[in-house]
Specification:
The protein is α+β, with helices and mostly antiparallel strands. The chain has helices at about 25, 50-65, 75-85, 160-170, 215-230, 240-245, 275-290; strands at about 5, 10, 30, 35-40, 45-50, 95-100, 115-125, 135-145, 175-180, 185-190, 195-200, 200-205, 235, 250-255, 255-265, 265-270, 300-305.
């Protein structure tokens, strides 16, 4: 039986319910993470990828939204290990922790007497999220939210309506996903993943002040590109037209992992096929998440399943 963690206890997934008056449901006042655990059959275990970094980020998101987690960093990591062991998914698995405003009241104010915040966590199997053979993207007419509206560096549940609008329009128009621009007209990111381009041997990505999520996979890819491939990194504003003339474009994120982009608005990117830098990064990332590169073992939290 699948289980979730809610209100301080593990319960059957079917019983992990919320009151319809919950503040987070009414106003989107919650923050979340997407975390991936990778199945290694030969060792009968899952590796949670960069668990500590993800939970540090959710605590930062909570701080921005004035939420207080009843679970500390170590507690959230331990709950993640336990939920994987309890569910016994022997496949790649997605973890969704949420810190949310649990008050049952009308009114959007976050800080009131006797306010209450809760932590929940569920897990479910997740295969490939995007086509790894090459994506055809479009520039969305929806702009990315500005830091002074709803900050993109905080994974606020309510803010993902912005993502939903962009991705839905792209899907209805026949594209694989969307690229959103920020309020200055520069490239921000994909609908819910970071974006990078390769030009003249340099890996270029929008900076953290361009209304992007401070991506953990983004940081991973920059580290691998620099340390393992010797590729120079630039973090700077990226113009829309730079996408069309880039040698390579890729998306990266927990669900997206490393995904090559081969067309944008019917412009072929490079040769119109996944480029050599992207392919090398895809291969390196796959080795890291499955524990094949010892120098990055500190990014992995092993979860043995045979112990139960």
């Amino acid at each position: 039986m699948d289980v979730a963690f809610v209100r301080g206890a593990f319960v059957p997934l079917s019983e992990a319910t919320l009151d319809i008056r919950t503040h987070a449901f009414l106003y989107g006042t919650a923050v979340f993470e997407g975390i991936k655990a990778y199945w290694v059959p030969a060792e009968d275990l899952l590796y949670i990828f960069r668990a500590e970094d993800h939970y540090k980020r959710i605590l930062n998101s909570a701080k921005i939204l004035r939420l207080h987690s009843p679970q500390d960093l170590a507690g959230m990591i331990q709950r993640s290990v336990e939920i994987l062991q309890r569910n016994q998914f022997r496949t790649n698995t997605y973890l969704r922790p949420i810190i949310y405003k649990a008050d049952t009241r009308i009114g959007p104010v976050l800080v009131v007497p006797d306010t209450r915040d809760e932590f929940l966590l569920f897990a479910e199997p997740m295969g490939a999220y995007l086509n790894k053979e090459g994506l055809h993207l479009t520039i969305s007419s929806w702009r990315r939210l500005d830091d002074n509206m709803i900050p993109a560096r905080a994974k606020v549940n309510g803010a993902y309506v912005n993502t939903a609008l962009a991705k839905t329009d792209a899907a209805l128009a026949g594209f694989d996903d969307a690229i959103v621009l920020n309020q200055d007209g520069h490239v921000a990111e994909g609908s819910a993943m970071n974006l990078m381009i390769v030009r003249n041997g340099t890996l270029i990505t929008p900076g953290i002040t361009d209304n992007i999520l401070e991506g953990i996979t983004r940081d991973t890819i920059m580290t691998l590109a620099s340390a393992e491939l010797g590729i120079p990194i630039e973090k700077r504003p990226v113009d829309r037209t730079e996408l069309y003339i880039a040698d390579e474009v890729l998306l990266c994120g927990t669900a997206a992992e490393v995904s090559p982009v081969t067309q944008i608005d019917f412009h072929p990117i490079g040769t119109g096929k996944p480029g050599p830098v992207t392919q090398k990064l895809m291969d390196l990332f796959d080795k890291v998440i499955h524990g094949h590169l010892p120098q990055y073992q500190h990014w992995l939290t092993p979860v043995p399943l045979k112990t139960l």
